[in-house]
Amino acid sequence: MRKRLVLQGITQTFDDGGSQRTILDQLDLQVGEGELVAVMGPSGSGKSTFLSIAGALLEPTDGEVLLDGTSIMGKSKTDISDVRLRQLGFIFQSANLIPYLKVEEQLMVVAKLAGMDKSKAERRAGELLETVGLSHRRKAYTDKLSGGERQRVAIARALMNDPAVLLADEPTASLDAERGLDIVGTIARLVKEQGKSAVMVTHDERILPLCSRVLFLEKGKLVAH
């Protein structure tokens, strides 16, 4: 199984009033093609820091992040921005949609940033919206959508540039149980069908049976219980 996301020996320290505080301590993680890995842990355990490093938003103090076998360490800001745009897909707690764009346009703007041909982008947007069950809403503005529909748009947008890795930060936090299960079920299905690797930070124990693995962030390391 190809490991599309690999974190090796990730350490993150911060200066805390003159002393060094270690948030992540030689953390390792490998996520295979088709896997959705849930990461849990109490507030302050370093989940946000972990996700920021996996998502190329924060460079670790030490260690290496590999996407599709290639390290992203030491790249320029421009190259890192390109990595985030083309190789990573983000799904947030709130869908973070652009309020003045219609559903289809939410996907098209991402494709435009990546320089995708317009006709190809239109085809892909249509396919993704059909996949997440929102073809009939493609011309709707986001304020007309339910919470679950907005998150499905966010999933389609995250997949628009065919990234290697999906990263989800508490994607069910603003949803009721039924919609939360539907959203994570959709993520799990698409990750498997499209051969992505995915990591989801969550506090929602209801959706854990839908994940390939569940890991806990403890003392700066990821451990299975």
Automatic annotation (TrEMBL):
SUPFAM superfamilies: P-loop containing nucleoside triphosphate hydrolases. The keyword Membrane applies. Residues 5-225 form the ABC transporter domain. One of its GO terms (cellular component) is plasma membrane. The complex is composed of two ATP-binding proteins (HrtA), two transmembrane proteins (HrtB) and a solute-binding protein. It is found in: Cell membrane. The keyword Ribosomal protein does not apply. This is Putative hemin import ATP-binding protein HrtA. GO terms for molecular function: ATP binding; ATP hydrolysis activity; transmembrane transporter activity. Its main location: membrane. It comes from the Bacteria. Part of the ABC transporter complex hrt involved in hemin import. Responsible for energy coupling to the transport system. It is a peripheral membrane protein.
